[in-house]
Hints:
By secondary structure, the protein is of the alpha/beta class.
Amino acid sequence: MSAPAAESTDILTIEDLSMRFPIRGHGLFARTTGEVHAVNGIDLSIRSGEVLGLVGESGCGKTTLGRCIVRSEQPTEGRLHYRGPDGRVVDLAALNVRELRPYQNQVRVVFQDPFSSLNPRMTILEIVGDPLKAGRIARGSELEERVAIMLKRVGLSPGHMRRYPHAFSGGERQRVNIARALITEPRLVIADEAVSALDVSVRAQVLNLLRDLQAEFNLTYLFISHDMSVVENICDRVAVMYLGKIVELADTAELYERPQHPYTEALLSAVPRPDPRLRGSGRRHRLPDNFPDPANPPSGCFFHTRCQYADEANCVEQRPDLRPILQDHRAACHHAEKLTLSGVEIENAS
Ligand SMILES: Nc1ncnc2c1ncn2[C@@H]1O[C@H](COP(=O)(O)OP(=O)(O)OP(=O)(O)O)[C@@H](O)[C@H]1O
Ligand code: SF4
Ligand SMILES: [Mg+2]
């Protein structure tokens, strides 16, 4: 498919983005023996003000895509057209370290693990205030004041800002993580498994907080998760990723209720639904465990080695493009129009 045009409603247009990691053999003079294809020619637009979910199994490349967007990785190929607050579009993939600096305040990431991502030797004030200091945005009492306001906003007591991370629970540490991401007043936030490590009850609170903050600060989220049941309550649209490619993209309710890609159908079939009325046809499609090696992707449709609908003529030979199947609903499957796939009814957000 040709790259999507950058529309004025898009904050980020990802164009033909790829990230390959070299695989090195062992030994002192080890040569490169292959490449992991973590991200494989992705075209995807993030609309300003939306929550776009990015789902897929472990190892499909979600984090790598997020890391490319914040330029913790330099993508092997492709462009990242970011529309700044003045409407000017810049390719983040083409900027050098110095040129990137102002955008690093505008595009921020909330990491997965609240236990390992906070430096145990820094106080909460130092952790949350660090981006302000590093970006020379504020220091001294002004910095402290801004940290206090942000801590309060994420539901933490400013009086605790001189404490160390170990004094906080998992949910509170994730609030610290969120405060650190939002302190520079970003416009686009990559939330990478931001609630995955939390207990279910705490998870709902942090999801509510993320939703409130989005409305209050007019944020756009790329919300990364391997868990379809987390994504449905917070996302406006969902992109499904398989082996470094987007295989389906639609509004959340549309994607859950009328999936057009067999991989999405299989992911949805694992979503718990205590109420049988919400469980589509009730058919379950357990995914075989044979996730392909990203260093040696299958021919044709990458999903053909696990797809119950695969045929020799098309699926094994030809790579399907991500193309419109229904209105505002794209899928990369040769047989999308012919298949009647089962989805699940969306649960009302709590
Ligand atoms: N720095 C790296 N060097 C080599 N390979 C890497 C590197 N980072 C990621 N990979 C590989 O790229 C692929 C995609 O990994 P990635 O972490 O992006 O997946 P993910 O979808 O975020 O998975 P998870 O749900 O487990 O977080 C995997 O095969 C992984 O092993
Ligand atoms: S193109 Fe073929 S193998 Fe790929 S998802 Fe569609 S039916 Fe399955
Ligand atoms: Mg990840």
